[in-house]
Known about the structure:
This protein is of the alpha+beta class. The protein is 16% helix and 20% strand.
Amino acid sequence: MLGSLQSDLNRLGVQTVAKGVCGACKKPIVGQVVTAMGKTWHPEHFVCTHCQDEIGSKNFFERDGAPYCESDYHSLFSPRCHYCNGPILDKVVTALDKTWHPEHFFCAQCGDFFGPEGFHEKDGKAFCRKDYFDTFAPKCGGCSRAILENYISALNALWHPECFVCRECYTPFVNGSFFDHEGLPYCEAHYHERRGSLCSGCQHPITGRCITAMGRKFHPEHFVCAFCLKQLNKGTFKEQQDKPYCHTCFHKLFS
């Protein structure tokens, strides 16, 4: 048909010159021509390799010597976002051996974008510093917050150094010496107070012999008559208003 058209035009005095050979059909091109990828094409033959739509003057991409429309090229060959699985057309974040749209790379816990401190990885997921340590770092036995730096290991738990104190008076332990009561650390005085082993007379711990009287405990030398202060023996005293008296003082004062 093309040869006949050229002959007819030539008979009418219209000179036709082939503008090249079409890269698709390999036939001469007379009329409109598309020049792309170092070749010439009939406009209707310069089509997307995948969808076969005519490319015309639209943008296209070349891969392995074949043209693709923008949509198909990105769909077939652009990196995919791990979050949305959509093609990445512009800026890309590469992390955790995956690619991401910048707007889709955020903390797996709170959804915030990562600041200058970057991110921490756990089980293939990215976490901001706060959520990573809140979720995965060991917790302090005192305040239950995450331990990020120095710690003390005691009583089958980890502690911030500033949290490892007497659970009653919050006093730090001298030379690291403490007393364990029900899994918690106490200073000596409050340990004995919790155990009920403080002397009711001097308020100091009882570590040796002990007298139990009036529902309390005493060092033997501190279990004395409330009036004459003579030492008493268990079973040889009288009680008045929660105080112990020897028999002599009791009769003198209350008989």
